[in-house]
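Dear colleagues,

I hope this message finds you well. In preparation for our joint manuscript, I am sending the Sodium/potassium-transporting ATPase subunit beta-1-interacting protein (Nannospalax galili) sequence together with its predicted structure, so that both groups work from identical material. I would be grateful if you could confirm receipt.
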Amino acid sequence: MGSCTGRCTLLALCTLQLVTALERQVFDFLGYQWAPILANFIHIIMVILGLFGTIQYRPRYIVVYAVWAAVWVTWNVFIICFYLEVGGLSKDSELLTFNLSRHRSWWEEHGPGCLHEAASTADLKVLREQSLMVGTGCALSHSYVEALHSGLQILLALLGFIYGCYVVSMFMEEEDSFDFIGGFDPFPLYHVNEKPSGLLSKQAYLSV
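The corresponding structure tokens are as follows:
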């Protein structure tokens, strides 16, 4: 019963992680945030691996998922520090876009309650002006929106790590109990019993 409950909970957590990761991936694509896009892609693959391992009773896959969950927590802590500008980090830098564009988070322009104002900016490499939409008067800053997204991912990853370890331990206990019962007995139940050597010699003597 404990193993079933743990498996069901882990399946639910992995499904929720998959949904939230896909939602986050969409908005990161809209904001051209290439580093988070790459991290989200790897995360989606690892969550699918965890789902497969849980359904198919593959402890090794769940271990890989649990290890990634710890890495994912670290990454999201970095994202929170980046947007809240902790430790000398600046949210205005192009770190998350690999210095390929000047785009920022999608939520900076489309956050809750944001009003759009057209602003013209001059680029020395471009002859014509570019019109950028800047969000003003937002009910919630995009930094806090991104931090809340990362906070949710940290919570789900921690729960996934805990239940992943629990399910792996349950699988190991079931395997140990199976070994104790005789699941890996070197003498299978279906082996053919050999005749005693005395009986074989007696039959050979009578045939002669």
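For the figure legend, we might mention the following. The longest strand covers residues 115-121. The two ends are 64 Å apart (CA to CA).

With kind regards,
E.M.
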